[in-house]
């Protein structure tokens, strides 16, 4: 069996860099302007560790004088190239001493020099060890890596993180500087769920940033016809992506109508017809990654004990607002986080997405889930229940299901909600969570048995909303 002495080998090779031996045969000049440095290295080492250098040093176009190859890499800074050489010669890399920006430059340089192991390590390091810096610099990172197909892992991490908290991103100071192609990718993602009027406001700010002559005009009354044309051109690819019918009439009047000149006439006329002529099917926005906004029409009708497919209009029906207070992927998918976020005697809606399935479960409690108060408490031997006549549980086959949804209303009002240490528990065990599991079934007659499921699922996502009238 052969003995391996990698540590000693790495130590000795690192001395080649630090002791400046005189048998080098390559001079590499890196950096530009005032930030330049010259490195004396060995072609055999670089060719063995980098396919890029293997090809470069064997080409006819390299410059060679007195047996010394001279090579220039102005796009790589001295500090980054020093890290690369330490990796190449001694497999040494201490990223804790470097800024996030320099680590990002190292990622791009390692990709250019075809050092795959280093590239993968740096990409994983940014995601796992410098996630805070990454989240503070989404725009810089996305602009830097957008042209590199090999950076998909980091790009997907950035885009996924943005979509977990899109409002924070679109209202950030960096958002108006976002590249158009990247903005297009974000707006077309299925998991980019944001109230449409916020998307519109953000796009207007982005468009103004791309139209320099408008940045110094604080009052819209000062805009010229050319200003509107320029803004329209900058936003032309995005206007068709806006779901204007999901913007309520007041927001449309105050925030969209002033920019009607940048909206294609056929789109604007269609929206006006919707507000003034058609009987609108009212879809109240819900900031959910689990269901589409259209399903809120069904949930609102269930709350009012009406036909789920009834068209709700602003004049005839009570209006509900859904305020997100808990999301497992954001706040931690565990009982303590749920209980901390979902406290108080207030009407609440919970949605649950299960793993490896499109199926969605949910429940509405007119009294909330935790810290409800003893005045609603009903004691039955060793079990304590909370009373409600309006609770119900339900299921959808998928995030857009309007045909096969099912609902089970509470039957035994004194046992609507079990006082439960982990998450929530409708009835005794009609619908409840423990750990990251969801149990459905065993209504015990406390709820209707319309769901007709007796199963345990792994939870992928949970969301809770406070439901209020307005």
UniProtKB/TrEMBL annotation:
Span of domain TLDc: 289-468
Boundaries of every BTB domain copy: 24-97
Pfam family, any one: TLD
Protein name: BTB/POZ domain-containing protein
Taxonomic path: Eukaryota, Fungi, Fungi incertae sedis, Mucoromycota, Glomeromycotina
